[in-house]
Amino acid sequence: MKKKKITLKKLESFLFGAADDLRDKLDASEYKEFIFGMLFLKRMSDVFEVKREEVRRKYSTTCNKEELAILIEDKEPYGETFFVPRIARWNESYINNKGELVPALKDAKENVGERLNQAISQLEAENPTLEGVLKNNIDFNAVKGKTKIPDSKWINLLSRFNKPDLVLTNDNFEFPDLLGAAYEYLIAEFADSAGKKGGEFYTPGEVVRLMVQLVKPHANMEVYDPTVGSGGMLIQSRQFVEELGQNPDTLRLFGQDSKGTVWAICKMNMILHGIADADIENADTIEDPRHLEAGTIKKFDRILANPPFSQNYDKSRIKFAHRFRHFTPETSKKADLMFVQHMIASLKKSGVMATVMPHGVLFRGGKEKDIRKDIVDDNLIEAIISLPPALFYNTGIPACVLVINKSKADHLRDKILFINADREFAVGKAQNKLRPEDIEKIDFVFTNKIEIAKYSRLVSRDEIINNDYNLNIRRYVDNTPDSEPEDVKAHLLGGVPKVEVQSHAKIFDKFGFDPALIFTDRSEPYADFHPAISDKQNIKPVIDADENTQAVFKQMHNEMAAWWGLAQSDFAKLENNNIYAQIRQELLASIKDNFLPIGVLDQFQTAGVFVNWWQTIKYDLKTIINSGWNQTLIPDEYLIAKFFSAETTAISETESQLSEAEANLTEAIEAVEYEAEEEEKVTASRVKSYLKDEIKSLEGNEDETKAAEIADLEKQLKAVTQFEKEVKNFKADLKRQKYELERKVHFKREGIDDEREALTGAMGNKQREITELLGAAAPNAKAEKSRQQKTKSLEEDKARYAKTLAGLEQELAAIGGVITAEEARELILLKLHDLINNELLRYLNAEKRALVAAFEKLWDKYAVSAAQIESRREAAITELKGYLMELGYLVEAFEAAQA
């Protein structure tokens, strides 16, 4: 049987379910290390088990049994593979020093928390790379809430991790870095669940991506994060180098974090990403920097950081004080620029760094002003970028990115680029997000030092000195929206100012939309809403129906079709050539070439279409590189649409019949004069029971009226019974049809090997039970009869399995056999195409909504003038007078009250 590989979706779902096992009343900040620790133990044990079999095979011909037993328990043959001691092995029981049998880790049932602690402790002891990582930071016996987590919870978690198909080795993954990707997913989920506490170990991926693009690491560099958290900055730096088509293994990664648990999570993250040589230290970076070279602070090519805001420090504990020209007050919670000074001291002469900072560091006085002055005068700041609000988990404080470059270009000397990007983002429920187009715009403007009104500006050092070294971004780039124009005459007398209509010309031109479809000419300088636009709701249908608007959509989709031809050609090379990075760069450039000339989406929005899509499909592409056009990448709905349209039609018909039958049943029930108790749910069974009781109470009475009542009740009972039966039958049909379709989809995707193996195993089990029954003599006739009945039942089960087994080939043949490689490729490509097509449509619809909104805004302002309001008021008063006169009220009194 073909071995199924673990998919990213499956592993993510599994890990999220494992977290649910422990969630209960705990928040993510309390139990995250348990899931990470368990995952790490399972991974280390699985990899070790595979390596041990390799060692066993290698030396089995040169060593006798006793020598081999000793050898496989020696660390030497395992090389760089982590050595897992017996107590930490997932599947292996052993005899301890007391001669007691110790069950395998997966089978632990008593004192499980302590057993897990012993496992991580011994795993750490055997592997110097893990020194201090596990046992000091993960305690499975820790009190959470008021009590320790009970054994039952640990046993459930072990059982979940013990699924036979959950072997966490690279050859069992769809692509090699699948475990690292799943670990990143889990970290993000924990950060979401932990809320503010999530900010202690996680910076949102979009912010990290922006910062990595700004500093642009490349191969052979050394990258450092002094407040490393879970390691996202370092991981994404590596991924960025890979996207450039360079060797990410040449990138050296360094980090430090003060919190032991967070440091442990980062260490495990690096190992699970296959970056065992990452140098991650555990200590307070301000007080005790651990990355040294020749007895002093080590220098790096690139530095990325999101330091904790408003921290204190202890000056008496600081080592290497020469890093700091100025010390901010120790108890003022203003260590922000202390971190910046440390990073500057840690930067090579050609180095670049980017760090998140609170806006306060840009304008506060005192020692912070002195630090700011030095940095400006030393010509170190390349850019200051204002970020949108509410991006981070742990703070609502407005934040910016400070980019320091020790080797600024000559033409940028004594200049700083200010970018005010705080108005461009996607609004979220709990947090806002940077969109791909926002990141692309910031990066493009930064890289090319472009000045855009209300967005970016290059500011001279002289101007900053004149402003007393105040770097407040709004002082230099004020992006406050222009005040909304108001035409008093139009408000009073009616009409829409043409100058305001023309102010939206840019969005009109994108779609070639003629405003004359919304407005009619009045007199200079005003227009009126077209008679067809009698309500604001009429605006959107006019735009939707416009030929030019439709033509733009069609043109964009035609360009997409042309571009897709190139994409398909590139994707065809993936299976045999690892040209992932090259394809990304080529397709991003070509999609801009295709879309930009049309003028609907700008270069940043076009990049947004592509990057959103690429982020969605990147793991699919890695699977194709590693496993070919794997059928697991095909969603069920694509298989069903391609191969099982007749079945879906039949299901739809049955659903329609079921809906009709349910409506008939509801109507029949409502026709019965049944008085339900308060909060009683009226069901067909209760109504039938009521009708039967009523009929029974009237039977035996010869009165003609009663006979007619009985006949009517029997008719109602018959209708309810009939429709209830129809509903049951249609539900049964629907359940059977859906099961059969599910079975067909499974066979189309996976073939029948799994089913054949399961049926063969079931038949074998039944035969063993039969053999056992027939092998023992029955003590009496009653027992013999029972044995015969059980045997008969088992034989019937076995025969049923045999019949199903015999028909498997016919079932498979009836659906056209297992999906072929070419068919799989066709459907996967269709999925990829649909995803980017939907992404394009989303962006186009957003632009069309902006067009609609422009007209709706003018409607809200000018559709009803003061004169019209007054006229309507007078008409309403006249109408009211008429009603009052009809009712005999004194109109004179009403008029006096109005006056």
Q: Output the strand order for the largest sheet.
A: 7-6-5-10-11-13-12-14-15
Radius of gyration: 36 Å
Approximate shape: globular
Instruction: Determine the N-to-C terminus distance.
Output: 94 Å
Total DSSP E strands: 18
Roughly what percent helix? 40-55%
- H/I helix tally: 31
In brief:
By secondary structure, the protein is α/β, with parallel strands linked by helices. It contains 31 helices and 18 strands. The longest helix has 47 residues, at 704-750.
What does this structure look like?
- A hairpin with a 2-residue loop joins β8 (292-293) and β9 (296-297).
- This protein is globular.
- α1 crosses α2 and α19 runs antiparallel to α20 (580-595).
- The chain starts with 7 loop residues before the first helix and ends with a helix.
- The longest helix has 47 residues, at 704-750.
- The strands form five sheets. It has a nine-stranded mixed beta sheet, with helices on both faces. It has a three-stranded antiparallel beta sheet with strand order 16-18-17. It has a two-stranded antiparallel ribbon with strand order 1-2.
- The mean pLDDT is 91.
- The chain has 899 residues and is of the alpha/beta class.
- It contains 31 helices and 18 strands.
